[in-house]
Design a protein that fits this description.
Blueprint lengths: L1 H39 L3 H19 L3 H15 L3 H38 L2 H14 L3 H16 L4 H23 L9 H24 L9 H35 L1 H37 L3 H28 L5 H4 L3 H6 L1 H9 L1 H16 L3 H25 L3 H26 L6
Helix pairs in contact: 1-7, 1-10, 1-11, 2-4, 2-5, 2-9, 2-10, 3-4, 3-6, 3-9, 3-10, 4-5, 4-6, 4-9, 5-8, 6-8, 7-8, 9-10, 9-16, 9-17, 10-11, 10-15, 11-14, 11-15, 14-17, 15-17, 16-17
Length: 437
């Protein structure tokens, strides 16, 4: 009976946290979709440059997602044991670390942007466009990481609404600036692709400033502590390796697409951004589960954590089926919103149906990822992701280049990657070994 009650309470709390988290998670990819639509009307070259430049910035920022997910795991346990002030103090240490790493990314990125772009793209025109965009956008890197840390500690203390306001305000302002900065307004002729990068920096600066203001208003110790920062780095080690596996996969996919044709990389950009959007929509349940499971285990309620794990997985499956059906019905309409280039539109169907069919799989996979992250089971997640990348995604992606499978081969690799992760997550959840109070 105790477990039944835990399930009922957890269901209400999951949705109370998931809905604001949905807004936060969807805000950035929605902004990128707007960016893609605005830039896409300047032609295939601008779209390909945005795709490559955006990927390189994403590789760096998402490689450091432990600033968000690791911080949530630590703060949620402290919050669950009744130590809110200590939980916020963990957020302060994560913020110091985020700003320091952001400065490193800014300096290193300026030096490495051109050689890395040439390595990935092969095409000189595409790499030049990407480098121009990236060198401006990198000035937002410290603010991207500060916002990650802010999201992390606020999720941990189950404050889901303020991050939604902060991220929405920054991205909304920048989305309004995109058309005039890219295409011009009145006598101003616009900056083209560079205008997209400037708008991106505006979004990150505004959001990070709001997170910093919220942290300063807390009554927690804010002074940097080397020991706490080192502990966060150690906790994030497995998450960094896992993220690098993701980036090796998606970077390889873009590299293969770039070596196929400009139309292929443009089509891949459109479908990939939709994939990223829906992945984060589905991940809103995982974020709620991460916070609640961390708090439950911090309070010693492992029965509640186990019950919640399967409920979240079920919700993910239902949402994934719904999203798959919705985007199947939009296959003939939605791609034209992002580009009018005939070659790009002709390539999109080669990825579209993989994208649609994978939504239910993604719903369960991302939900179980959130469960295991909330439990601090980062080592297992690292190993499972590496295995799925090495055995599934990477071999099929590079075979698609050798055997000329094109965009369909790239998305076949993603399908193998997701199915292997699904199998590993279900086996781990069933074992119950992750639920350690």
């Amino acid at each position: 009976m105790a477990v039944d009650q835990a399930e009922r309470v957890s269901a209400r709390r999951v949705f109370a946290l998931a809905m604001p988290a949905l807004g936060v998670l969807a805000a950035e990819p929605l902004y990128v979709l707007v960016d893609t639509a605005v830039v896409g009307h300047r032609g295939a070259l601008a779209l390909a440059g945005l795709a490559l430049g955006g990927l390189m910035l994403t590789v760096v920022s998402t490689g450091l997602t432990f600033l968000s997910y690791g911080t949530t795991a630590r703060t949620a346990r402290l919050y669950g044991s009744g130590r809110r002030i200590d939980a916020v103090a963990e957020g302060a240490q994560a913020t110091w670390l985020a700003f320091a790493l952001g400065l490193v990314v800014l300096v290193a990125g300026q030096c490495l942007a051109e050689p890395v772009a040439r390595l990935l793209a092969g095409d000189t025109a595409v790499s030049a466009a990407a480098v121009g965009w990236l060198r401006i956008a990198l000035f937002g890197a410290p603010f991207i990481l500060v916002s990650m840390a802010g999201n992390g500690w606020m999720r941990g203390v189950q404050d889901a609404r303020r991050p939604l306001y902060y991220v929405t305000l920054g991205n909304g302002l920048s989305a309004a600036l995109l058309p005039p900065l890219v295409h011009g307004a009145g006598a101003f002729g616009g900056w083209g692709l560079a205008g997209s990068a400037v708008a991106n920096v505006v979004a990150q600066t505004v959001s990070a400033g709001l997170f910093l203001r919220a942290l300063l208003r807390e009554r927690a110790p804010l002074r940097p502590r080397a020991g706490a920062i080192r502990a966060q780095v150690r906790l994030g080690r497995d998450l960094v390796v896992r993220t690098l596996a993701f980036q090796a996969c998606f970077t390889s996919a873009l590299a293969v697409a770039s070596r196929t044709s400009t139309d292929t990389v443009g089509a891949h950009q459109v479908v990939l951004q939709l994939w990223n959007l829906l992945s984060l929509v589905l991940d809103s349940l995982a974020i709620a589960a991460q916070s609640l499971i961390g708090a439950a285990l911090g309070a010693g309620r492992d029965d509640q954590a186990r019950a919640l794990a399967w409920r979240v997985a079920g919700y993910g499956l239902v949402f994934g089926v719904g999203l798959g059906l919705a985007f199947a019905s939009l296959s003939g309409i939605l791609p034209t919103v992002f580009t009018t280039a005939p070659g790009v539109l002709a390539e999109i169907p080669h990825a579209w149906w993989f994208f649609v069919v994978l939504q239910p799989v993604a719903g369960v996979v991302f939900a179980l990822d959130g469960v295991l992250l909330g439990a601090g089971d980062a080592r297992f997640l690292r190993t499972a992701t590496l295995a799925a990348a090495v055995l599934g995604f990477l071999p099929l992606v590079w075979l698609s280049l050798i055997l000329h499978w094109g965009l369909a081969g790239i998305w076949l690799g993603l399908s193998a990657f997701m199915l292997l992760r699904l199998a590993a997550g279900l086996l781990r959840a069933r074992s119950g070994r992750w639920a350690v109070p």
